[in-house]
Structure formats: C-alpha cells, structure tokens
Amino acid sequence: MGLDRPGAVVAGGPWADPHRPIYHFTPDRDRYRLNDPNGLIQWKGRYHLFYQYNPHGPYIDNTHWGHAVSDDLVHWEHLPIALAPAPNGPDSEGCYSGCAVDKDGVPTVIYTGIDPERPCLATGDDDLLTWQKHPHNPVIDGPPDGLELVGFRDHSIWREGGVWYQIIGAGIAGVGGDALLYSSVNLLEWEYLGSLMAKSPRDRGTMWECPDFFPLGDRHVLLVSRLPHLMGGDIWRTRVQCMSGGFEGHKFRPIRTDVLDAGGNFYAPQTMLDDAGRRLMWGWITEGRSRTAQAIAGWTGVISLPRILTLDETGWLIQAPVGGTDVLRTNHIHVDGMDIPAGAIAIDGLRGDSLEIRARFEIAAATTFGLGVRCSPDGEEQTTIEVDLEQQTLTVDRTESSLDPEALLTRESGALRSPAAGDELELCVYLDRSVIEVFANGSAATSRIYPMRADSLGVSLFATGAGVRLTEFDAWEMRSIC
Ligand code: DQQ
C-alpha cells in the first residue's frame, strides 16, 4: 500500500519545500517517510525519540526505527538508525511500532516484526545507540489460540509488583478493535490473560493500533488509534480514542470515551513518564496532501510538539503544550485588549507562516470566535480556528486553506472541554508552515494545511453574533530548530 515511489523531487530538495515545518521534528534525511513515535524514554536524563522511518523514500516500506535525542524537548540531535529489518529474521518485512522500558538498567524495546506480525525484543547499549535483537525472537509465537485476528501489533508495557504486563493492539475478525493483555516475569516468556477491556467497547472499529495504557491521577487512561476499516484507507480520516476509567483485576473499565484530537491529523500517539513525573505524549502529524505531492516533496510525516497530560475530575484528558519553545520566540507582537464585533479584523504588522499565538477571550454570551491564519490579503486563502461556546466545539476550518484542489480541504471539529462560567479562554496556536497545533482549555486540534500563495501569511481575529472581548493577544515568530 502507498508505494508511490518518488519521481522528480521538488527543486532545491525536500528542505526547500515551503510546507516543511521548521520547529517540529522531521528526520534529517533527503528522502524519507516518518510515521509513529516509538520507544519514548528518558534515559540518563535525556529524552529519546524513536520513530517509524523509511530511509529510502517517502512511502511505506522498509520500516526501520529512526532515533533522535533531546535535552530540552525542543532541539533534537539525530542519531543512527536503531532498528532495521533483518533478512530472514522475524522482522524481515519491517520493524513496526513498539515501546521502550528500563529492565533493571538494561534499555529494552519490544516492537512488532512483520510479516507475520510478531512481538520482538531488542536490548540497547548504555547510550541507546546499538541494539541487539534477541536470538529467540519472536518472543510471542502468534495470536492467542482460538482468536481470529485481522491485526496483532504495537505494544504498551508497564511493571506492577515485579511483574511485567503488556497490551498488544488487535483486531478480532467480525468483532473489532481490542487490546490483548499479557504478563511476564522476564519480558521473554509471556502468558495471555485475555482482553484488557472489562466489557465489549462500543464503536471499536476493526483494529486498535498503537494502544497506550497508563495510570494518571486516580484513574487509568487507554489511547487507541482506531482503524475504522482495514489498512489502505485514508489514514487522516481516522481518530484516536481516549478512554479514562478504572483498572482492577487486570480489567479496564472506561468511564468516559472521547476523541483525543479535534483536528484530523493526529495519529498513533505514544506517552512516557519522565523523571519529573510528567506524563508526556507525542503523536504522528499525518499528511493532508496527495501521495503524489508527498513523493514530489521527497519527504512525509511530522512528530507533534510534546504535550503534557493531566486528568480533570470528570476524566477528561487535558492536553497542554509542555512549553520550552519560548526559546524559539522572536519578533514579539502584542495587542491590547479590545472588543471584537461580529466580523474579522486583520492584525496589523503580524505576518508569518511559523508563529506562536496566544489569544485570551472573555467568556460571556454564547458566541463563536477565533483566529484566522495563513490568510491572503484578499481572503482567497485562509484557515480559521474557531471556538463555538454554544456547540462546545473546537474547529479547524481548512475549506479555504489552499488553492490546491488536491489538498485536504475539510472542516474538522471536536468537543471543546467546557470552560467554567466566568473563566477566560486562551487559544494557543502553534503554526509551523503546513502544521497547526491548537490548544484550548485542555482540548487540542492538529491539522495540516498547504497554502499555495506566497502572501498567505496574515493573521486575523473574528467573532460572530454579539462579538467577543479579547483580553490579551501575544504572538511571536518562531525560529527554526534545524
Ligand atoms: N503504523 C505502524 C504500525 C501501526 C501503524 C507501521 C499506525 O505498527 O499499527 O508503521 O500508524
């Protein structure tokens, strides 16, 4: 699937592509494909990011694990490839997604070798630079007896009372997505314990990819990248489900289920607990342009900025940027508080395709308000980020984001976490050329846009109905991390 071998690459190479982000992580290669974040771990104080990677071109094939390290979660040093498919090995067709753990001082990853899909284990040296695949791979021979699976891949591992547990993403033929629970004393021999789920979930799609399960506050959280149909569909149309609830007797009982990200381009997230006790999450920011356009650009796939996760008292997963990107800020623009009547107001002096914007609004009457970004002077191209207090939605409207008819031109909406009456609402927007990451009161929306006009750089504020009071507005141009 998706084997669009690249033809002519954009003049000047992939780094000249005007849609390539400058402060989000993309690999340091000329022609490549990136997808899921993998093996997130803080090791000797440094943050390690592994990721699904094809070093041969911007298409799915030859899946390796790329590797990068960071001290500040902003700047990344590219490191040699960590895992490559081994001819005649159980991963000869690819090293698919997995996770990393500290096994009594030994860095250890479990990933899916294909084909067929089987869990494999590798251990790293103390700098995580070279990896030894276990001679007895795969560490689980195949799906549990009696289960007919359409998918059996991707791993989340934790330790409790000296016992290791892992869940593996699965799709049960004719039933749907599931997370299969195993236990082990040594990470090598695994016993199947059954489904993680206390009861059959609703809307389980056909397959749960990249399950991630972790305690947070007084609950547990399960993230699953839910495939509505089998591989080959439009991956950006799928959504990550977030469940929070109780975990007892090896069974997870969700109390609430939400869509994790409203924007339509956030997939396969993985989390890690850092030394400061923070639960951090990264996701793969998927594409919104055609495979031919990706092949011509010569690169594809972006890793999100890290998000810090907490739960509110209702079990809503609050997502917020970790911060740290303040060091990239330059050319600050401040706008004093003002009333925004119905309509749109351009912000004088603020133009750019790589910006951080923080706009605070007073919450009064039910109303719709927000920001326009990548706006051409005549409005021919524009993308709006909208908060609708009546519908309680957060929306990225990219129906007019590009003159390229092949770019994804959709309106993407999701639930907005309810602001308390009397609160202010801050819209925090990270615009990075074709990437938009929005945070609003714990909700998030991640989208891709591909404006064609060189002058689609404007920013505006807008409101409907009775208008809205802007209490504070700050924006910065962002420097490159490349
Ligand atoms: N991507 C990986 C799989 C996973 C999917 C392959 C999710 O392991 O199921 O690159 O994007």
SSE arrangement:
Layout: E1 32-43, E2 46-54, E3 64-70, E4 77-83, E5 94-103, E6 106-114, E7 118-124, E8 131-133, E9 149-160, E10 163-172, E11 176-184, E12 191-195, E13 207-216, E14 219-227, E15 239-248, E16 251-259, E17 266-273, E18 279-285, H1 291-297, E19 299-300, E20 302-303, E21 307-311, E22 317-321, E23 329-335, E24 338-340, E25 343-351, E26 354-362, E27 368-375, E28 383-388, E29 393-397, E30 411-415, E31 424-432, E32 435-440, E33 443-448, E34 458-463, E35 468-478
Parallel strand pairs: 1-19
Antiparallel strand pairs: 1-2, 2-3, 3-4, 5-6, 6-7, 7-8, 9-10, 10-11, 11-12, 13-14, 14-15, 15-16, 17-18, 18-20, 18-21, 21-22, 23-35, 24-35, 25-34, 26-31, 26-35, 27-28, 27-34, 28-29, 29-30, 31-32, 32-33
| Spatial extent as radius of gyration | 22 Å
Counting DSSP H or I runs of 4 or more residues, the number of helices is 1
Kindly report how far apart the N and C termini lie. Answer: 31 Å
Structural class: mainly beta
Shape: globular
The overall pLDDT average reads 93
Runs with pLDDT <50, length 5+?
1-8
Proportion in helices: under 10%
Instruction: List cofactors, ions and other ligands.
Output: 2,5-dideoxy-2,5-imino-D-mannitol
Strand content: over 45%
Biggest sheet: strands, sense, closure? 7 strands, antiparallel
- List how many beta strands DSSP finds: 35
Oligomer: single chain
